Amino acid sequence: MSDNSLFPAPINVVSINPDDDLQRIYEVFRLTGMMIAKSISDDRLIELPLSPVFWDLILGKKMNIFDLERLDPNLFKVFADLQVLANRKRDIDKAVFFDQDHKQRQLNTLKTQSGARLEDLTLAFTLPGYDSIELKPNGKDEDVTLDNLQEYIDLVLHFLFHETVKIQIQAFKKGFNHIFPVDNLRPFAGNLELEDMICGTQRNEDEWANPAKLAEFITPAHGFHQTSPQFLYFVRFMSELAMEDRRKFLRFITGSPRLPNGGFGSLDPKITVVLKKPIIPAGASSLMSQEMMQAQHIDEILPSVMACQNYIKLPAYSSFEMLRDKFMKAINEGANNFTLS
To answer: Which residues are annotated as active site (predicted)?
Structure first.
């Protein structure tokens, strides 16, 4: 999917092994439906951004060629062009003021927007991208022409939205309904609130881009206060993160790449930032004070977190640049590290 959401890969129900592969696919989607329903029921986020098109099919929406744009924009452009061609062919056929020879001459001039004749595209009655899935018996041996173009378009849409995904949809609904009726989600159909409910939100640019707004959602404690330089560095760092780095940052501090529905204000508990002091190695020089030794080591350590509590342990770095470099290293290289601290 162009938006990185998930849609079932089409399966060939004619050739697939019903006792092995088909059963495995059915179980995967049944358990997926059950898992998502359970996450909604328990108000837990789960990183599984299902396509809005998939949800529309789950909830029984009738699909048309314009829904193809949400599924595959490039394929939609091709089929929108083919549909224009089919419409022009239909209009020529219906014209009552032209004789058959004139109609045929007009049909011979029909081309796609790219200037290609339909015959030059060498299309057959198979699903685009899946030559093994025939749209009709012996479809791979039947060429697409102006006379059967509309049939081809209709069959492609039927197979994409129904025939090749009906098993997955049935299994998903069965698993989901085991927890609570999937029809309860109908009020959310067609909008992004459903995705927010399951995966969390990414549409809170006004919070991310405003350091003063961010500071309202973060509690400095145990060594930091609202005017501490390092706390202000941290808030500035958050406000300057790019979209993908925001996801990494959130995964690092909360365990999820998205915020709950409602943004930072819905985090429970709130983000807390506390001072992290370096551990002085045993046997360090006794001639140097504890504070001086800590100051020497402060820029050498990385921030750490208690993700279950949204609790950040932040060293008192000497500069904003040092904080940014250490935090970026932590979220890129230490995201999968788990230690006791």
So the answer is: 308 (glycyl thioester intermediate)
78 is written with which tokens? 């091709």
- Assess whether 209 and 192 both reside in one domain: no
CA separation for the pair 174, 170 (Å, rounded): 6
Distance set, CA 243 to CA 96, 238, 246, 249, 270 (Å): 58, 11, 5, 10, 21
Alpha helices in the chain (DSSP H): 21-41, 52-58, 67-71, 73-94, 100-108, 149-158, 166-177, 193-199, 205-208, 211-216, 229-239, 243-254, 290-297, 320-333
Q: Is 308 a catalytic residue?
A: yes
Residue 176 CA, chain-centre distance (Å), reads: 20
Residue 338 belongs to a domain: no
Query: Could you list the residue range(s) of the whole structural domain that residue 99 is in?
Result: 1-199
Boundary of a domain, candidates 154, 170, 199: 199
Q: What tens digit of pLDDT does each residue of 119-161 get?
A: 999 999 999 999 999 999 999 999 999 999 999 999 999 999 9
Q: Which of 42, 308, 336, 340 is catalytic?
A: 308
The predicted-structure confidence for 289-313, as pLDDT tens digits, reads as follows 555 555 557 898 999 999 889 999 9
Q: Residue 107 corresponds to which tokens in the numbers above?
A: 């049909």
Q: Is residue 284 part of a domain?
A: yes
Domain co-membership, 152 together with 9: yes
**pLDDT (average), residues 247-269:** 88
